[in-house]
Design goal:
The complex is a heterodimer of chains A (about 325) and B (about 290).
Chain A: E1 2-7, H1 11-21, E2 26-32, H2 36-45, E3 50-51, H3 54-61, E4 65-68, H4 75-84, E5 88-91, H5 99-111, E6 116-118, H6 126-136, E7 143-151, H7 173-188, E8 192-201, E9 211-218, E10 223-229, E11 239-246, E12 249-254, E13 257-262, E14 274-279, H8 280-283, H9 294-307, H10 318-336
Parallel strand pairs in A: 1-2, 1-4, 2-3, 4-5, 5-6, 7-10
Antiparallel strand pairs in A: 7-11, 8-9, 9-10, 11-12, 12-13, 13-14
Chain B: E1 4-6, H1 19-28, H2 32-44, E2 49-53, H3 58-67, E3 76-81, H4 84-103, H5 107-115, H6 117-122, H7 124-136, E4 146-149, H8 151-160, H9 163-177, E5 180-185, H10 188-197, E6 204-208, H11 220-229, E7 233-237, H12 247-255, E8 260-265, H13 270-286
Parallel strand pairs in B: 1-8, 2-3, 3-4, 4-5, 5-6, 6-7, 7-8
Helix pairs in contact in B: 2-3, 12-13
Classes of the chains: A alpha/beta (about 325), B alpha/beta (about 290).
Amino acid sequence: MKKIGLIGAGKMGISHLAILGAHPDVEVIGVADTSTIVTDVLKRHTSFDVYADYLDMITEKKPDAVFVSVPTKYHEPIVQKLLDRNINVFVEKPFSLNADNGQKLMESSIQKNLFNQVGYHNKFIGTFMEAKRIIDSGSLGKLQLFSGNMNGPVVTKTKEQTWRSKPEEGGGCLMDYAAHLIDLINYLIAPITAVHGADLMSFYSASVEDAVSCLLETKNGIHGTINVNWSDETFRKMSTSITVLGSKGKLTVDSTELKVYFRESAPFGNYAKGWNVRHINELSPHVDFYLRGEEYSLQIDHFINVLEGRSPNNINTFESALQTDRVIQQIKNHKIN
Amino acid sequence: MNRILFGDNQFFGVNHVSDEKARQQSMRFKDDLSILHTLDCAIAEGCNTFMCTTHDRMLNIANLIRNDAEKYNDFDIYPCLPYAHKYANAVTELGIMGTIKQYVPGNFIGSLFKGGYALVSKDHVKMMELMIDAELKMFRGISTPVIFLQNVVTDLLLGLGMKDLLKAFDDYIRKKYNAEPGYITMNMPKLVDVLATQGIYRPIVCASINYEGFRMSGGIGLYEQTLKSGRVRAIAMQVFSGGATSPVKALEYVCSLPNVESILFGASSKENIHQTVSLINHYDKKYHYKTA
């Protein structure tokens, strides 16, 4: 049983809280939020201990780990405080607004030997997990090209502002949406190290981009493109798709379907030469509590397993999330220059 | 409840195992009349209940049904609320306050902003009731004997331990709409336990129930045990596990289970509707299913 606290009960925080609340190995020791609307609801209708100030919560309850799901600009000060007090951290994505500060957090976490994880949940989706297995097996041959697409209907009209529409607070399609795609490419293919072209476009938002297009290169010299647009209402919800072409095959994967073509022979028992299609219902591990997608429960299971010493701390670490932050920074710099 | 309920996912671009198929379907059903035509095919096969979300497009469908009252005399709609993506996208875009401002209807909002945050935090149950009214407005004049809470909200309340709000939903649906409350969930065994603590016994629960154990959180064994206990009036959904199981095997499995009162399915073509209905009827005979 691990004692877990949560800071920030917004959209992602409340989802984490529900999954933590239902988790058999977790005791939720408290929830901190600065919004009285949120704390009033939680006080009145749940049995969680609710705090306006997270420092009071961690001082009083001494949690084993804390989930941080506050606007991105607050990640750095809060995560630093937690690390200073030897508390393990799960923090929402993107990790940091400034990669140098992110680097400091990563170093302090390593130095203090604390467990850490960042909420890039796509890595826990069955189709992407299978894509990872196939790519890592080398059965696509020498990788040649990749393309990533991500679309959704977040901003389809000119509307009032929230922190997600402020670039200095981590808003915009690049930080909120493209971060997922970049992180997934880093994981599935290889870390992106060069940005050869970048365009950030605004259609409805006054101060942030609504779409991002980039030419990218990974550290092992594989080139590819990403096209991300959060202002496309023909998509009912966030949709992420990656295609990788190699000398021996091609793979296209999204959160529901994996399509893979092998030119010569198949690498695993249940695949054949030519096209193969697999769906999420065949590929997703089962969970004990489901909310919005297995991946949200699986990422929390993984973190709890890490805390319990049952799994190595090797997925969505500060280190891997920092690589994503650096690519985001490179894209911004490329645009400015 | 009718034995067979017709669902709406195919109409609104929802497919749990293929985003691509979902997009194709949303193109196919871009006209309201094409939706109505498929509904008519389902009715012709004896499916007189349509279980649907409070998607914006349902307003038009509801209008078409209202306008032809004679034809749809025996037709029921089981609304499922809220259409959660609408709110989830709104929260990303507008924030929590902005979303409340946009979606909580009527004068309440005027008084709310005069009184500031204090008022919002005062009466959550009242706010929920107003949102339920707003979502159900589109079905006025249509028979809605069972009204469901969507799984995202049911399971969120379940995980957060907001049992009193589940109870408040139950009370309000009975009192205001004179209807049976129902719950869609991906966590049926846990939900049944929690509802019992609120004095809600033998609830109508719509959950994934299928041969493969797909999206049956906690495991297929626990689900079968809960069904056998008789503590739930279940509606089986995702019976084909998103296409992983053959229709024959899939439907034989759900028809053989105790306390599955209804089977929910969606299909786009007349042939598929006919095939599914025929198979359910066939296996109901085999397993001696009796209507209540």
